[in-house]
Amino acid sequence: KLNTQELIHEINRLKKEKKAIILAHNYQRAEVQDIADFVGDSLELSRKAAKTKADIIVFCGVHFMAESAKIFSPDKKILLPVYDAICPMADMIDVAQLRLLKKEFPNIPVVCYINSSAEVKGESDICCTSSNAVNVVKSLDEDKVLFIPDRNLGSYVAKQIPEKEIVCWDGFCISHNRVRSDELDMVRKHRGKIKILVHPECSPDVVEKADFVGSTSQIIKYVSKADEKEFVIGTEMGILHSLEHQNPHKKFYLLSPSLICSNMKKTRLEDVYRALKDEIYEIKVDKDIMAAAKKSLDLMLKIS
Ligand code: 13P
Ligand code: SF4
Known about the structure:
alpha/beta; Rossmann fold; four-stranded parallel sheet; EC 2.5.1.72; quinolinate synthetase A activity; Quinolinate synthase; NadA_sf; iron
């Protein structure tokens, strides 16, 4: 069994030897973020995956993210270090359910949050992430839109674009959705005017009371520009690592103990090492599904 130093050394050695790059989401464990070549939100990671010249991408995140990387870089080997690191929200709608929904609302465009399967993306008109959802919906000519699978992000978008009617699917993030608005009230009571920054996957009553709503990287950028010295963070706790590292003189408090994503926490250094050594678990997507999903993802990249 290798110790931490040996693991880090071996990961770096294998990375060079195999021309691999490690991408990590902002929610990953601190030690995984530290070994990564790039850490970011879903949109930034998609862009990186589309651009990289590496032969292998080790994707430290959840399945739909690695799948998106495969769609953008079909000739590269995409590895997900833990095979069952999934996003439960992505499984809250499947392609059969989406087809039924489309039948119920014919000729209405479908906007699909990137937290979804490749098959569902392929059956949608355009994708979005939490950082560009408002712009993506605004870009559509139609005044009625179907938004899947996150009802909370959908409601947030609807509030920003009141002139459009947005029909949301009933999916949600099991971590963000657990945050209660009375937790926010308590923070306000005890910490006064402190800025509360939340992810749009939180429920509408939480989002409504927050000072800033944005993707993980938008929250990180907000903090780096703000003059305040203390913040309450309403998204998954993994983000605290970057925030604290980049802002050593600022203080951060987690809005709720619910803000932990067990799937994002599955990936450890041992898994990254094994992924590189044995080249597992390779993500494969059916060619036709990949082509259809790529259309929706490319349209999104064009807009954002
Ligand atoms: P971001 O795109 O904001 O990083 O969000 C991804 C995610 O899964 C949030 O729970
Ligand atoms: Fe999915 Fe929520 Fe985890 Fe993000 S935090 S990956 S939406 S379960």
